[in-house]
Amino acid sequence: MSPHPRPVTGLAAGGRIGAIDVTWEHAPWEPLVDHYAVHAATTRDVATTPDTLIGTTVYGRITHDTLGPEAQTRYYRVVTVDASGRRSSPSAVVGATSTESLVVAGEPIATVGEFDSKSLELALAPSRGQSRFRDAFPDGVDFTYGSSDPAADWCYLHPGPEDGWGGEREHTFRLRFDLEEAPGSGLGVVIWLIDTHASRPGTARLAVNDAPAGEIAFRRGATRGSLEGDATVPGTALVPSFVEPVLDAALFRAGQNTLDITKSDGSWHAYDAVGVFRPS
To answer: Ranges for the Rhamnogalacturonan lyase domain (predicted)?
Structure first.
């Protein structure tokens, strides 16, 4: 009789905004491993039961996402399952804490949409971006905080220069907002995505008041966010990600300001929400 599969080793976890990444070393391939079952709990006493299962994978990694903007601590164990359905004993326990978002830690100055892992309140969501973008937004997005409507004026889907449906060119999404006075310290740009393209997530240039403010690279997603708009649905294939750079105070001024997001490389990304925040 073949031995039971061995538990994984080298379990590690690290937090980021809205998510915790868990990794481990692959179990030996004898007996043949079918998948790894990952369990999570809010205490170190992680039961390996169906109600604690957060996912299965054939890889030595998994991301526990949609944890929200607050810092969240979770503990994990992994069970190896072989091709016959036999389960190993649970791995050791590892814990990590996600990073608190500026959505919680900062003061909002201007926002578009709700930071809720959904795109449903944005224009053309959840599935008309590819078919309607060029008609609805031929010159990109130009959104004024306080007067524009997210449901009509900010498209959930931002095409990249590799997208034929977007004309295979760069598109800029502009957010206009007012400041009563020039800031004394940097301001945070919060970009929450419900999904990105799986193989070509690409990059975007940021500019404030037409001055370059850096470039951001997006994580790979699941290529489902162009058609689905709710990453909180159990079992969803969507892969949310979060970018929150703090930009130099010198870029901003009293009065009206502009923040430009220009997709400079790759394919589309799908927004959850965007905002400018003052870090606490």
So the answer is: 111-274
pLDDT, tens digit (0-9, with 9 covering 90-100), for 164-187:
999 999 999 999 999 999 999 999
29 plus 130 within the same structural domain: no
Tokens of 239: 């892969």
The predicted-structure confidence for 223-273, as pLDDT tens digits, reads as follows 999 999 999 898 899 999 999 999 999 999 999 999 999 999 999 999 999
Which residue segment(s) compose the domain that 220 sits in?
102-279
Q: Which residues pair with 261 in a beta bridge?
A: 173, 206
- The CATH code of the domain that includes 84 is 2.60.40.10
The band of 29, judged by pLDDT with boundaries at 50, 70 and 90, is: low
CATH value at residue 167: 2.60.120.260
Going by C-alpha positions, the residue among 215, 218, 176 that lies closest to residue 197 is 218
Quickly list DSSP for 19-76: EEEEEEEPPPSSSPEEEEEEEEESSS----SGGGEEEEESSSEEEE----SS--EEEE
Give the start-end residues of each E strand in 209-268: 211-217, 241-243, 246-247, 255-265
User: Mean pLDDT for the chain?
Assistant: 95
Tell me the C-alpha distance between 41 and 15, whole Å. Answer: 15
Distance CA 2, CA 275 (A): 56
Q: Which amino acid does the sequence have at 31?
A: P
Longest dimension (CA), the chain: 76
Phi, psi (degrees; rounded to nearest 5) at 165: -65, -20
68: pLDDT confidence band, cut at 50, 70 and 90?
Answer: confident
What is the edge-to-edge ordering of all strands in the sheet holding 94-97?
53-57, 33-41, 73-82, 94-97
